[in-house]
Design brief:
heterodimer, A: six-stranded mixed sheet, B: mainly beta, seven-stranded mixed sheet, globular
């Protein structure tokens, strides 16, 4: 299973909005709407930010939102803050309990 | 509180095996699946496999089939991941993570275990 495709890096200034894309094939996403997004700061474990394409876990800021169209999922962060600087990974359920991750995107807050 | 606590860092020689543990607390162990995810230095996350702590059934990433084995001990609420015939490319941080349903996202992660394979 090949990794989902994400841009290697994105950047934005404080207060701006950015969007990170996550592209796969129909078999990667398997026709499911089970895409999740994770934030990872250096040396730390990943943290769940979005699940089931567009749902936020309790405690996650509403500045984070997710969407999906066809074989591309997206994570949008509005009102960028310095603490948003991190690596972001998308992940999709691919059937029978299996998962695939994107290659990761490094977000730089200028 | 709900947490997954993993065993400490390991250094192994090529060809050896490593066993990493993940102890769950703060929730009903058999109600959540446990996945293993690895991350080579400077690289992205890669899914390794899943175990159902309730019945012990497993599914592994195709690339690691035959070398990875996941087991669980319901008496200690602990999941184990054994990786055999270690190669330098197995050097990575290994994370365990839980999910409620077989298709759900990973809501709680362990702190990670660094496994270094070096002669």
């Amino acid at each position: 299973q090949s990794a989902l495709t994400q841009p290697a890096s994105v950047s934005g200034s404080p207060g701006q909005s950015i969007t990170i894309s996550c592209t796969g094939t129909s078999s990667d996403f398997g026709g499911y709407d089970y895409v999740s997004w994770y934030q990872q700061h250096p040396g730390k474990a990943p943290k769940l930010m979005i699940y089931d394409v567009s749902n936020r876990p309790s405690g996650i800021s509403n500045r984070f939102s997710g969407s999906k169209s066809g074989n591309t999922a997206s994570l949008t962060i509005s009102g960028l803050q310095a603490e948003d600087e991190a690596d972001y990974y998308c992940s999709s359920y691919t059937g029978s309990g299996t998962r695939v991750f994107g290659g990761g995107t490094k977000l730089t807050v200028l | 509180q709900v947490q997954l606590v993993q065993s400490g860092a390991e250094v192994k020689k090529p060809g050896a095996s490593v066993n990493v543990s993940c102890k769950a607390s703060g929730y009903t162990f058999t109600n959540y699946y446990i996945h293993w995810v690895r991350q080579a230095p400077g690289q992205g996350l890669v899914w390794v496999g899943i175990i159902n702590p309730s019945g012990g059934s497993t599914t592994y990433a195709q690339k690691l089939q035959g070398r990875v084995t996941m087991t669980r001990d319901t008496s200690t609420n602990t999941v184990y991941m054994e990786l055999s015939s270690l190669r330098s490319e197995d050097t990575a941080v290994y994370y365990c993570a839980r999910c409620w349903g077989v298709d759900d996202a990973f809501d709680i992660w362990g702190q990670g275990t660094m496994v270094t394979v070096s002669s």
